Amino acid sequence: MSLRRVLALPSWAEHVRLLAGAAGLDRPLATVQATLDASHRPAPGELTVVARPVAGTDWQIDALVRRCADAGATGVLLPGTEPLTASRLLADRLAVPLLTTGAPPLDLLVEARLLLAAPEIDRANLLLATHRALGDRLRPPEEVVAVVRRLLRSPVAVLDDRGAPLAGEVTGRVRLDEAVPQRTEVDGGVLLAHPVLLQRPAMWLAAELRGTEAARADVVPPALAVAAGALQRWLLANRLELERDARSRTALLGDLLRLDTEPGADLRRRVADAGWRLGGWHVGLHIGVPAAVDTVARTQEVMRALDVDAVVVEHGDGWTGWVTFDHEPTAERVRSLATRLQAAHRTLRLGAHMGVGRPHPRPEGLAATVAEALDAARLAATRPETGHFLHVDQLGMAQLLLEWTRTDTFEPAARALVAPLRSVPGDLVRTLSAYLDAESSIAETATVLGVHRNTVAARIARIEQLLGVDLSRPDERLALHLASRAVILSDE
Amino acid sequence: MRITAGDVAALERGVALLGSGGGGDTVTAAVLLRQLLSDGRALVVSSTAELAPSARVVPIGVVGATAAFTEKLPGGGEFAAAVAAVERWTGERADALMSIEIGGLNGLLPLVVADQLGLGYVDADLSGRGLPRLDQFSVAATGRGVAPAALAEPGGQVVVLAAGSDAVIERGTRAFLAGSGGWAAFALAPIPAGELAGCTVPGTTSGALELGRRVLAVGESPPRDALETALAGSVLARGRVLEVARHLGPGQHGSPGFGRGSVTLADHRDGGLLRLEMENEYLLALRDGTPVASTPDVLSVLDHRTGVPVSCDAIRTGVEVDVVRLAAAPFWTDPRWLPVVRPRAYGIDCDPVGIG
């Protein structure tokens, strides 16, 4: 607001005369203050209205003009006075508008104050209207957008934390990395945005003011803040429900996975309430994600992405789920399901790894296929070459078995078993492994290792002697085969 | 101290400066003084310490419209009548005279009177500058009081204001002057020389003479710093008078007040606007709206070309002037006496500028 704007008010235009200091007419005007006190100290942005009669010859006029200039005040209005040339010259020199009026100065003051308060009144009205319209009821983003759009007569949108619209539409861009209310000049208007904060901005409420509405850019932000508050309440309530739901489902899943007998009536009832099926054939799946991912908040997103009729439960480091078939699925159907899950996994982009189990029937089969999926997912985490996706089909099963030989319990035992071979010269562990791979063929072992077959024969004899084993016995062969493989793999 | 004809110009310049724009025209008094000293005579001015403590000193001067003094000429016997009246009233003979006011014509005329009456003259006065009212005299400020006071006007009337507060004496004097010739010779009751130190401003005649000598020595249109050195003061502005506005000041007790006015000039140096508020004297100086000097300091306006002080009555637009400030006599910076001469004593709602 400027003094020039106030002077355009009808009563001011009619009754107020600018005597001097025209150069200061565009000084910002913040307040209009009446004074009876000759030694009044004006505040910055103040138009000082002298409400007592004052002689034009009074030197205090000069002093007041001077204090106005010093304080960054806006001007001086004198009642019915013709100041000296000296005062006018001073007002010109200091660029402090010096005004006089024949009208009651306090009437003029009230009019100017109302004009100054107009944005405040507009802001207050909008704020109240927003409060009333949004009320106490929880409203999803679509409703909030509709309410705010109606109040602002402007495009409004709720954006997710990546700037994609969840409801409504705006064309301007929100600066997502600045978690503060924003104001951006856009072509022909102003984009206002307010973050909806949980720990960090979970959503943004944005409004695009164009044309005449752009003039209200100073008025709108508090209303947006209120609407953002409504969104925040909705998010929090929603979140609470999700958490509660997630906890009960996770507990139910845990009970199912521990099941080793027929489920009791109570458990069957809980399963039915959850809309799950225990009969039929199940194919388990597990999606593991980095610790930073909020699994509860993203469950819906994951279910949408999977796009199959699956149960998905927040579990462990991510989600565990399964697809239930009425009858034993054909290999073709299982492969097709795995392909679809793999495609869904690619679209998720959560830095996730995914494992899929084999079909198993009945409740206990559910636990089995889920266990396979969990193992496969763990394996997939270290397999970038498969896109961090692993399906436990026949081939996958073997890999899984072999993978188990790398576990924390197996590997030390394997090392202990072949330790005597490592303490003597000659590549005895590798020879043993190659010999067993070659199904006890001395000749083939010699070829693989590139040594003479007599050497192989001598080494095998030495191995049997050192370990005190008989390599013709299947159990000992199997144990040593796994042990040697595990040691070699871990040494590689 | 002796004053000779050669000192008259300097003394006149000094008392005119101390008049602070008031005190009346010094020309007539200077003519009389110069005539008195024309044949090589000298006047003796004694410091208060040189007098016997019991010596009786009568303060005298012209009161009223000093402009009328040059229009309605004195008959010659007014001062003798006033002194005689106060002697008769108090029953004490005068041994010496002193001035009521160093600023303006009262800085010169009592010297002439002392010589005519064959009395000594004391280097002190009751103002130390130009002052407009009797109740501002040092004897009023210190509580000694103005009454009894004798007035003798050129028409022959002699009045003794025997008793009353200083304000009453002031009011009575104004009423008498309004009903008579506009000015009168004025004499106060004799003050023993031993008491002068406590109730007068000492050394003012010698001080005015020194000031006048220094100022004359720098010549006409002196450079700013030379003028400041000579004055032991400061030049507030040097420029052309843009506006002189006169109006009647607030009256008291139903009688009209003194004329008030504002003088504004633009400083040649930076275009700054210097505004002087005046009554009978220049009282307040504002530079671009900020008070920069005030009574009791002496504010004087000098014609830039001649260096002659320009009185409040005589100032007009278009003249090139220097506005200067001289420090007040130490008497007036005493916090006990300051209220008598601070701006509010003249109805100007402003703290003294430059006084602690």
Tell me what you see in this structure.
- The complex is a heterodimer of chains A (492) and B (356).
- With 492 residues, chain A is of the alpha+beta class.
- Chain A has 17 helices and 16 strands.
- Chain A has helices at 3-7, 10-15, 59-71, 85-94, 105-134, 141-152, 221-257, 265-273, 295-306, 331-348, 362-380, 394-404, 410-422, 428-437, 442-449, 453-467, 474-491, and strands spanning 16-20, 31-35, 46-50, 75-79, 98-101, 156-160, 165-168, 182-186, 189-197, 201-210, 281-288, 310-315, 318-325, 353-356, 360-361, 389-391.
- In chain A, strands 11, 12, 13, 14, 15 and 16 form a six-stranded mixed sheet that branches. Chain A has a five-stranded mixed sheet with strand order 1-5-4-3-2, with helices on both faces.
- Chain B contains twelve helices and 17 strands.
- Chain B has helices at 8-18, 27-36, 66-71, 78-90, 109-117, 138-141, 166-179, 196-199, 204-217, 224-231, 330-333, 338-341; strands at residues 2-3, 43-44, 56-64, 96-99, 120-125, 149-152, 158-161, 183-188, 191-192, 201-202, 233-248, 259-267, 273-278, 282-287, 290-294, 298-303, 320-326.
- In chain B, the strands form three sheets. In chain B, strands 3, 4, 5, 6, 7, 8, 9 and 10 form an eight-stranded mixed sheet that branches. A seven-stranded antiparallel sheet of chain B has the order 15-14-13-12-11-17-16, with helices on one face. In chain B, strands 1-2 form a two-stranded antiparallel sheet.
- The longest helix of chain B is centred in the middle third of the chain and has 14 residues, at 166-179.
- The model of chain B has no long low-confidence stretch (mean pLDDT 92).
- At the A-B interface, α3 and α4 of A face β11, β12 and β13 of B.
- Chain A: Residues 428-486 form the PucR C-terminal helix-turn-helix domain.
- Chain A: This is Helix-turn-helix domain-containing protein.
